[in-house]
Design brief:
This protein is of the alpha/beta class and 384 residues long. It has helices at 9-18, 23-34, 49-58, 130-148, 167-178, 198-206, 222-228, 237-251, 269-279, 304-316, 333-336, 355-383; strands at residues 2-3, 59-60, 65-71, 77-82, 88-95, 100-104, 107-108, 126-127, 154-157, 190-194, 212-216, 255-261, 284-291, 338-346.
Amino acid sequence: MIDIRSLSKDELLTACEAMGEKKFRANQLWEWLWQKSARSFDEMTNLSLDFRAKLNESYAILAMTIANSQKSTDGTIKYAFRLNDGFLVEGVLIPTSERVTACISSQVGCSLSCTFCATGFMKRERNLRADEMYDQVAILRAEAEKEYGINLSNIVLMGMGEPLLNYTNVMSGIERITATDGLGMSPQRITLSTAGVAKMIMKLGDDGARFNLALSLHSANNEKRSKIMPINDSNSLEDLIEAINYFYDKTGTRVTLEYCVINDINDDPFEAEELVSFARQIKCKINLIEYNPIDLAEFKSSSAEKIQRFADYLEKNKVGFALNWQKLQSAFIALFGWTVCVEIAQPWFTTMRSRQLSDLLGNFLGILVVFVVAEIVKQVRVRR
């Protein structure tokens, strides 16, 4: 049996003609596969029974299924998805009052062995196919509407695996998720999170990636970062600075630095100073993340006081405010044991305490724009 979603549109057209079907049937079939997210040929009711029988004889839709789910008190839902070969991967729905974010996986397991991450203790079994990443989004989109009554608004590739070590499939999956003949989601609502594969970050720039990029930094000190993230041995901070600047020059997109604050590991004032120094060399914003301990590691979460002192140091070194402040989620804990606690943007560092000022400035600018437009219209009418 051939996985029908492995075929390109041209290959699907050729396959339909070989079965004695007209060309427009290929377009109908493509629509069922990628826009309507059909999970079986029997769902394709505008195709003849004879055509569906032919499809069932030679092709298969290797759709993943929900093996189980767990809903937390804050509304976050963690899913285990079963793949056609029996492996399981995880995904998460993260709701707020305004949006729902889906966190999806890119590999079965992970090979990077980050010492603070539960997935880092798993063996990497295989890469996920493009259709398997598509399936996660399609399922979570339907689940978001069922559970919360609102549309899925954002996607983060922050689940199991390192997306940039599955580059081709990830890019193909994102293409199907964002294409007008796919799920049609905006690439600006997608964030790819990487542990830092410098040459592939540069390739994203060369390929003109239109989605957002996040770097799991967690230390701005090479020696310490290598201890908690072995990938740093071959992708140093200097390599990452060069790659991120290259990516920004090619795409104009600021990178988000993810910084998980771990007790007595990376939470002292000197670490905060190093983080500021690193951030000032690139165009970025910073997410401070509270660590939630996992059974497989001995790390502990920093106290609220330490995290606040860390955030205060970053705020003290600010040079302005970001107007596009976004409310942060608290539910990445479901996969990684992380809870986002504050977002800081650079070169305009933003903390929660600056939000009210940002909102006031935004309202003022909105009123100013309306006033200017009204004056322009008035002048045009006078001249006439």
